[in-house]
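Tokens help. Our protein:
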Amino acid sequence: STAFLTTHDYGSGSGRGVLKTEDGGETWITKFNGYAGTIWIRFFNEQEGVIINGGSMATTQDGGESWQIVPSNNIPSFQSNELTLLTSGNNSCQVIGNHIWFGTSKGRVYRSKDKGHTWEAFNTSLGSNAIITSVAFRDTLNGIALNVSSFVTVFSITADGGESWNNLTSSPGILIGNMEYVPNTDGVLIGTSDISGSPTNRVSVYSTDFGENWETINNDVPFGGIEFISPNVGWTSRGIITSSNQPAMYKWDGDIFLSSSDIRTQDNVKLYPNPTADYIFIESPK
């Protein structure tokens, strides 16, 4: 029943605060007013968390009751016109263990290995003007970031926790701006886009090889940010709502690893000898 909330006014006023509820959203109390709370709130456990708004950050160690500003010398300076991004929601910032990463509008990725207390910044292979709308890590070393350039999605991968990056040569052939790693999988990613225009820009897709290849899930709903807690359970928002009868949230309760076509491919499995008394051989073309 406990949750945290922040809002953003798109630069028209002072930074918004951090609100906390302990009754499932019935009532909210301001816990940190007007500083660092306008982009991301991330918790590493029930007690320790961080709030981020560009180079303004603060941490908590008591479940959000009090917040301590991160000293500016613990945060690499943002470049001129370098920003953190709102548009991908949850997918532009990720936590694994004590680690946290987020991308910027200058093709850089910030990383903390100590729950947001100290930070490093690294250039990616996406370019110095790339707007990184999503980052996804499957562990503390292997990650992927994406940038949309001229309505083409470009991916960059890292195998050292974000210190060095290389572009993927493959592309899904469609525009996605949101990307989420599915926990407890080898390398499954879910991607979505809510860009208006062609129906091919309103898609949800998945990859089972960490971004090398992609398959379509849906191509007629403009999905927004994504959150998965297992291979079977996840949520996404509707990125564009044009009528009151359109749902704002969607829940995934399927299994992207199993379908009727997957079952049919097993028809060529051979088991012999038949009958058998003490052993059996299983032969498959795959």
